[in-house]
Amino acid sequence: MSRKAIGRRSLVTAALAAPLLSSAGRAQAAWPTKPIRIVVPFNPGGAIDALVRVIADGLTAKLGQQVLVDPKPGANTIVGSEIVAKAPPDGYTFLITTNSTHTNNPSLYAKLPFDPAKDLMPVSLVSLGTILLVVKADAPFSDLRGMAKWVKGLGRPATYGSWGIGSSGHLYGLMFEQVLGGQYSHVPYRGDVPAIQDVSNGTLDLTWASPTSARPQIDAGRVKPLAVAGSKRSASMPQLPTFAEQLVAGFELSLFVAAYAPAGTPAEIVGRLSREIKAVISEPAVAEKLVAQGQTPVGSTPKELADMLARETPIWAELIRQSGAKVE
After folding, report:
1. How far apart, in whole angstroms, are the C-alpha atoms of residue 87 and residue 94?
2. Considering 195, 222, 246, which residue would you say is the last residue of a domain?
3. Could you tell me the mean pLDDT of each successive run of 10 residues in the chain, 328 residues long?
4. Range of the domain at 66
5. Are the C-beta atoms of residues 258 and 96 closer than 8 Å to each other?
6. Is the model's pTM score more than 0.70?
7. Which residue of 127, 167, 178, 263 has the lowest C-beta tally within 10 Å?
């Protein structure tokens, strides 16, 4: 075939492909054209579910399509996260989850049904969270050192709750024996609300909880918070000291909430959702609601979230290695 014939064929091929490419580009530019689903790998009514519903309402207004929240709890976020990891990358299924999905689970579980680093694309850091240590209101101590002394004199392991095996609360509890001394026994729950209830009625000694879940029982005088994990005090409970302020180091790791998409989702869609999330959580009314839930609104680009995961994951992995925690 002559060079001239090849050139004509290339021109024809390009001419035929151009409408298809422009059509695909228009489809992405028009996104979304139908409702969007955000999977939340936690119980409905819990702290993360409540946070995501506030954001979903704001996204619905900005995107012009209904943004639906779909709670899929189980296995320390694995159940819901797997759904998104294996969903079509068409821009209509997303995940909002805690750092456990990426920073904890790969080190805790011998085998996962998906690879968080490869199968989920970072979209945006949503917020930095706080986690409280809560005990019964009439507990005979009011600070961490008093609790440590009480635990050592119990004559049995102190029971502590978290929202699941391998959760951040579980890992923090494992650190108790290393940092505070005494013996502790983990009791996993499907969410922090039932654990708080058991602390209030005396069937559980202490638990980790979000400010949102704990606030009703604190206000009712049934439980009391002793400290907050993280590097800073909670904006919703500024009077509550951190572990570090009570001279207990090691509980400063960031707990964060972030959004992800199935790998292969078009970059234009991921970029737009990232910008819209930041715009929503920057609105004063939304930010106020997030702060009331114990969250500090942040927002980020996909790259900034990816960089944060790269920094935080090795730190959590080392903590898990030192604790010896494993989930079969």
Report:
1. 9
2. 246
3. 50 51 53 98 89 96 98 93 98 96 92 97 93 95 94 96 83 84 92 94 95 91 93 82 85 85 98 98 94 88 96 87 76
4. 33-128+255-323
5. yes
6. yes
7. 178
